[in-house]
UniProtKB/TrEMBL annotation:
Domain of life per record: Eukaryota
Protein name, entry field: NOC4L protein
InterPro entries xrefs: CCAAT-binding_factor, Noc4
GO biological process: ribosome biogenesis
Pfam families: CBF
One GO cellular component, as annotated: Noc4p-Nop14p complex
Keyword Isomerase: no
Annotated transmembrane regions: 31-54, 85-107
Lineage, uppermost ranks: Eukaryota, Metazoa, Chordata, Craniata, Vertebrata
Family, similarity comment: Belongs to the CBF/MAK21 family.
Sequence ranges assigned to domain CCAAT-binding factor in this UniProt record: 43-192
Keyword Nucleus in record: no
Keywords, alphabetical: Membrane, Transmembrane, Transmembrane helix
Length: 254
């Protein structure tokens, strides 16, 4: 049993400062799988090490995607390690061999959680979801279902279901993204409106959006040059704006 602070310090440097220098990196399998099962930020940080073991040392983790799916909660858009998590999530969902129901479950869950996400996270996750549609065309049924649920209570998707295959994500539609098209931030509304059109085949580069902060968004808005707003289109004629105004003969606006 390690203190939470020590767990985090070890996991932050494990993938680049420890594993590459070990003769047998597979000795860390138990440590990383236990850390991955703890939950919260520790599980997010364990992903880096697990990715190396899965990708380079043939580690088989049967419930890996089920656990990854369970990590998607409202905090992922607010945590300190958000950029690292979404970078790895992008890698794990990049394979074209993943079943459509699995990818659809991730898309739907990310969309549902996006309803309470801050603008800087939304500007990252919407292109992220669009990239998943490009990789997995079978999931486009989520945005091409005109007779979807008219009320949130009729949505067949089961948010509380821990097993992606049982979440019924392929039976639903992305009404959440439709809601975001009315977001108060114009950039978010514009990004969400992309799903109304056919998506280009080339994926969006989200690397520059992973580290986007609220300060950068605010700074961008402050530096915008405001256009001159016309306050009056017709010049006033007479004191009360009427032609042949008798008052204009005796009073002026100077």
């Amino acid at each position: 049993q390690l203190p939470t602070g020590l767990y985090k310090k070890v996991l932050v440097i494990l993938h680049d400062s420890i594993l590459p220098y070990m003769n047998e990196p597979t000795l860390m399998i138990d440590f990383l799988t236990v850390a991955y099962g703890i939950g919260g930020a520790i599980s997010l940080l364990a992903l880096n090490g697990l990715f190396i073991l899965i990708h380079q040392h043939n580690l088989e983790y049967p419930d890996f995607y089920k656990k990854l799916y369970s990590l998607l909660d409202p905090s992922i858009y607010h945590v300190k390690y958000r950029a690292r998590f979404f970078h790895l999530l992008d890698l794990f969902l990049s394979s074209s061999h993943l079943p459509a129901y699995l990818v659809a479950a991730f898309i739907k869950r990310l969309s549902r959680l996006a309803l309470t996400a801050p603008p800087e996270a939304l500007l990252m996750v919407i292109p992220f979801i669009c990239n998943l549609f490009r990789r997995h065309p079978a999931c486009k049924v989520l945005v091409h279902r005109p007779h979807g649920p008219e009320d949130m209570s009729e949505d067949p998707y089961i948010m509380e279901e821990e097993e992606p295959s049982e979440s019924r994500a392929l039976e639903t539609c992305l009404w959440e993204i439709k809601c975001l098209q009315n977001h108060y931030h114009p950039d978010v509304a514009k990004a969400a409106a992309v799903v109304n059109q056919s998506l280009a085949e080339i994926e969006d580069d989200i690397s520059g959006l992973l580290e986007l902060s609220a300060y950068e968004l605010f700074d961008k808005e402050v530096k915008k040059k405001a256009a001159d707003v016309p306050l009056e289109f017709e010049q006033i004629k007479g004191l009360f704006g009427k032609k042949n105004d008798i008052f204009a003969e005796h009073f002026t606006l100077d």
